[in-house]
Amino acid sequence: MKPSLVLKMGQQLTMTPQLQQAIRLLQLSTLDLQQEIQEALDSNPMLERQEEGEDFDNADPLADNVELASTPAQEIPTVDTSYDEPATNMESLEQGEWNESIPNELPVDTAWEDVYQTSASSLPSNDDDDWDFTSRTSTGESLQSHLLWQLNLVPMSDTDKLIAVTLIDCINNQGYLEESIDEIVASFDPELDIEADEVEAVLHRLQHFEPAGVAARDLRECLLLQLRQLPADTEWLEQAKRLAGDYLELLASRDYSQLMRRMKLKEEELRDVIALIQSLNPRPGSQIEASEPEYVVPDVIVRKHNDRWLVELNQEAMPRLRVNPQYAGFVRRADSSADNTFMRNQLQEARWFIKSLQSRNETLMKVATQIVEHQRGFLEYGDEAMKPLVLHDIAEAVGMHESTISRVTTQKFMHTPRGIYELKYFFSSHVSTSEGGECSSTAIRAIIKKLVAAENAKKPLSDSKIAGLLEAQGIQVARRTVAKYRESLGIAPSSERKRLV
C-alpha cells in the first residue's frame, strides 16, 4: 500500500482544563471546597473574598469585553488616612481606660505595662496558681497520657515505674490490656530480673486508676473492677459481683431462666441486678477522647414557607468571590511584558475559578430542587413516606448524566426540618407491593424500626415474623432481605434483643 494523505472531519469530546476544574470542584465537599477556595485566594492576587456587609460589584467579572485598562493607575482613588481629633476629654474617661498621653520618647528598657494599662485583663498573670496552660490550650487527651499523669502522682520505685509505663503502653483505646503478663515479662531486659509477680502487683495498682475498669484483661475483670469501686451500701452489689464473675456467659445468651434458678433470684430481683451491671461501662477507655469532633456543614437549606417547600444554598458555607477591580485595572491588552503576562494569566484563572463555582452552585441547586420535588412526602410525614428514587430519575429531570448527579450528591448535605441528611440518603431502591405499586427500601427500614420498637421485649420479633407483618401490609419482602435491612439499622437479632420486663 502506498502512503497517502487523507483529510477527515470528526468530532470528539476534549477535557479542557476549565472542564476538569469544574468537575473537580463539583465533587468536593463543603469543607474541602472552603480549603480549595482559601488556597486559590492565597495563590491568586486577582481573587478576593466579598466581605459581609459590602456592596457586591454588579459588573460581570467574567465578561471578556470588559475594558480592563479603563482605569489608569494615576486615577485609582487613594484612602484618606487623616482623622479629626476626638473631642472626648481623656481625663474624664472611666477607670480602667487610658488616661495618659503618649510620650515622644521612652526610657531605655521600659516595658509597655510600665507606662500603659493593658486591655487584655482576662489574661492570667504568672503568679496565678490556678492557670493551667495545657488544660486550656490542648485539643484533647489520650488515655495513655491520662494514665501517665496519674502515675506521676503515685510513689513508686524506678523498676515499678518502668513496669507501669510498659503496661500503660500495652493498653488499647478501649482501656483493655492487650498483652499477657508472660509476654510483658519477656519484653524486659533479662538483666533487670523482673518476675511475673512484680508485673501482676503493678497491674493491680494501675487498675485503681481512673477511669474505673481500666487495665482489665477481659470483660469479666473490667466489670468486677468497676463493681468493687462502688460504695459498699449499693443495692444488689454482691449479687452483681456474683453474676459478673460466674454467670456472664448466661447473661450474654439471655438465658434468664437459668440465671434465676442458679442465683436463686426472682424475676424482679434479677432485673435490678442486670440494671446495675448495665449501668457499668464495658469500654472504660472510650470516656477519654483524643479526637476532635467533626461537624457537618449543610450545602442546601430546605424550609417550608406558605405551604411551599423552598430550597436555597447555604450562603455561610458558600463564600462569595470576585475579581479585584484594582489589580484587574493594571492589565494592559497590548503589553507583552512578563509582569503583564503573569497578571493576565492570573486574571483568566480567576475568571475560570469563579465560573466553575457558579456552575457548581447552579448544578447543586437543580439537583436539590428535584430531590425535594420527588420527596415531598418524606419532608411532610417522615421516613415511611420516602419514595423510590434512583440517579437516572434526577439525571433525566435536570438533563445531566448520571455520573454528574453522583458527583453532586456525594458528601453534600441538606438541612431539613427533620434533620441534616446527605443527598444520597434520598435515593433508594424499590420493592414491589401486592397492589402493583412500589415501596422505598428506606420506608421499609423505617417500618422495621417501628415494629422492633413496639415488640414485646420478652418475645422479640424474628426476621420471619417481621417479613410476615410486612406482607400483611402489602409489602412483599423476603426474610433475608429483612435481615439485611435490620443489620443496616444496627438492630441485633431477636435472640440478642430479649429482655426482662
TrEMBL record:
Domain RNA polymerase sigma factor 54 DNA-binding intervals: 341-499
GO MF entry, a single one: sigma factor activity
GO annotations of cellular component type: DNA-directed RNA polymerase complex; protein-DNA complex
Domain RNA polymerase sigma factor 54 core-binding: 133-327
Entries under PROSITE patterns matching the protein: SIGMA54_1, SIGMA54_2, SIGMA54_3
Key words of the record: DNA-binding, DNA-directed RNA polymerase, Nucleotidyltransferase, Sigma factor, Transcription, Transcription regulation, Transferase
Listed Pfam families: Sigma54_AID, Sigma54_CBD, Sigma54_DBD
Cited InterPro entries: RNA_pol_sigma_54, RNA_pol_sigma_54_core-bd, RNA_pol_sigma_54_DNA-bd, RpoN_core-bd_sf
An example Gene Ontology biological process: DNA-templated transcription initiation
Protein family: Belongs to the sigma-54 factor family.
Known function: Sigma factors are initiation factors that promote the attachment of RNA polymerase to specific initiation sites and are then released.
Matching NCBIfam families: PRK05932.1-2 (NF004595), PRK12469.1 (NF009118), rpoN_sigma (TIGR02395)
UniProt protein name: RNA polymerase sigma-54 factor
Source organism: Pseudomonas mangrovi
